[in-house]
Give the backbone structure.
Amino acid sequence: MKKLKIKFNKLIQNTIELNSSKSESNRLLIIKALSKKKIIINNISNANDTTILKNLIKNNSKKKWDAEDAGTTMRFLTSYLALLKEDVIITGTNRMKKRPIRILVEALNKIGSKISFTDKTGYPPLKIDKKINQKNNTISIRGDISSQYISSLVMIGPILKNGLNIIIEEPFYSKPYVLMTLNLMKKFGVSSTLNRNIIKINNQEYKDGTYSVESDWSAASYWYAIVSINKEIDKLKLKGLRKNSFQGDSILSKIMLSFGVDTEFLDDGVIIKKNHNIENFIKIDFKNFPDLTQSILVVAAYHKIKLEISGVESLKIKETDRLSAMKKELKKIGCNFYNKKESWVLEKRVNPFPKSVVIDTYKDHRMAMAFACISSRIEIYIREPSVVNKSYPNFWNDLFKVGYEPT
């Protein structure tokens, strides 16, 4: 099993060409595929999830579409193919076959498709027996499982002959991701309304246009963590981030004020720098930005902050059960992380860090990158470091450019 040992030597450069958002990129690929007009996407992500989706659409497979381990790809393709294809299979890795998709399938079947489960009910692989012959234009869907189900549906909404109304059953988690989808659709001429928990989209066409993908705010969280933790790095410039972002994870700039980092917005990105303001106890509801959870937990562990978090239920059905994985790995660095009724608590660290620790990544890109951020304080070994390819293939190279070293 491959391991990567990381240590920090000295600061080499302080500017990062941050990777592009795979969330924006994957939505734009579906929008482009659904449009009859010319859509140009600049600065598209090189994340493996995006590459998988781009190649599947380009190759237009006849019978079998393999989303591999890409959750967004699986969910977006399910609606896309239900609209356009018949007698096709959508499958993925063994882990993907354990990630639920029943809610999305039931919604599509209510609209007018015929999709069945070929193995375990409620989970991939799926078979699209009949494409959508629209019977209903109003559906209800739970909002507390995955916002990707909702985004998947809204993108095909304007193509449906009767449009689509979606009633989102509260609580409505990860709402900013749905707003991102609607805003990107608007960039290409599709109007919609979101009134509290009801989305309405009329039948209409996607228009032509050009869009440049923003850098990834969830990836930025690792660099915020490094500035917060590394005593020898006072500031970094992250290129490509926008003050008026469509990404819900842009809340990071406000959250990190309490973890010792300020943000200065520039025309071409941000400068992040230490402010030395470290709180003792912080409560955060992550329901609208769950992908920030792991990096924030590691920062809190380092600074001996007691952290109480909520809104993290969706983390159980990601690449791994992220809550269980974090509990195990945080224990290795002397931190107790546990479930308490409706929340999870990271206790204030009492013991010193161990001299050396091996971090298991559970085939989860965010586990690797989150724990890499404390390698300036602990001798860190990351198992299966290539998992970062899922969202941020250049992460290790960027880390080494700043002054960290593989040993």
About this structure: Residues 115 and 128 are 4 Å apart (CA to CA). The radius of gyration is 21 Å.
